[in-house]
Design goal:
- Chains A, B, C: One of its GO terms (biological process) is response to metal ion.
- Chains A, B, C: Keywords: Cytoplasm.
- Chains A, B, C: It comes from Halostagnicola kamekurae.
- Three copies of one chain form a homotrimer.
- In chain A, 33% of the residues lie in helices and 40% in strands.
- With 100 residues, chain A is α+β, with helices and mostly antiparallel strands.
- The first copy, chain A, has a four-stranded antiparallel sheet, covered by helices on one side.
- The longest helix of chain A is centred in the N-terminal third of the chain and has 13 residues.
- Chain A has three helices and five strands, in the order E-H-E-E-H-E-E-H.
- In chain A, strand 2 and strand 3 form a beta hairpin.
- The first copy, chain A, has a single domain, classed as Alpha-Beta Plaits (2-Layer Sandwich), CATH 3.30.70.
- At the A-B interface, helix 1, strand 2, strand 5 and helix 3 of A face strand 1, strand 2, strand 3, helix 2 and strand 4 of B.
- Strand 2 of chain B pairs antiparallel with strand 2 of chain C.
Chain lengths: 100, 100, 100
Amino acid sequence: MPTVYLTSPPDAAAEIAETLLEERLAACVNRLPSESIYRWDGEIQREAEAILLAKTTDEAYDDLVSRVQDVHPHEVPCIERFDEDNVLESFATWRAENVD
Amino acid sequence: MPTVYLTSPPDAAAEIAETLLEERLAACVNRLPSESIYRWDGEIQREAEAILLAKTTDEAYDDLVSRVQDVHPHEVPCIERFDEDNVLESFATWRAENVD
Amino acid sequence: MPTVYLTSPPDAAAEIAETLLEERLAACVNRLPSESIYRWDGEIQREAEAILLAKTTDEAYDDLVSRVQDVHPHEVPCIERFDEDNVLESFATWRAENVD
């Protein structure tokens, strides 16, 4: 099952997480504070960013990605998928029951 | 080698990490503060959670999972395994030496 | 494409991230605060650590690892590679354009 790694400006992160939960695209989202450094238009940028780790299912993944693109303030958001190599079965069952 | 992704109430996280170290089920545990949103009993819940990233070995993984279930306050804890695709050899050696 | 998972003493983390950006070994680095517990010389150690998540390319990975070893204050730093299972195409393109 996928964990989707997203980054977002801190003030947009809660809304993204709420949207994914309200629309049953993720069973849970963990939101972490971070400091990011990256290149944009050839310049190095330094700013606070939230990292969101959204737990979803294979079936919901594509819809989750397109919904994030709808609500994300960035033109080119970081959206990456990491599949776990094992998971506690009861957690996997709960997760599948809470994602459409 | 596995990194085990766990979430826990903040006040239980240190004890889980200490148990894994004391019992040599992990060589190290990184503990991060996060805000979580998830569905439980049909309601959306929002609360602080700790994320624990435990570095262990293939051989110790199953024991680590069952030990976390023993000490974790949740009925259905998030316990996921992510295997790295490469690791600095000296770190892998240190890790194997510190896990039984 | 790889995400490189690094840990570092908090006061060395910004310099490691800046080096990877300046030398175009990573397109971005997310830096997170954490508490770590680990075994060193047989004793359990507890201290604050930064986690760095560096987004790079297959081609730049080996150079990134050796450069981190150059600048990292630890003898045996945690350097692990996690390859994503999927990524938003525009983000992958941006990333490749910003890593040499």
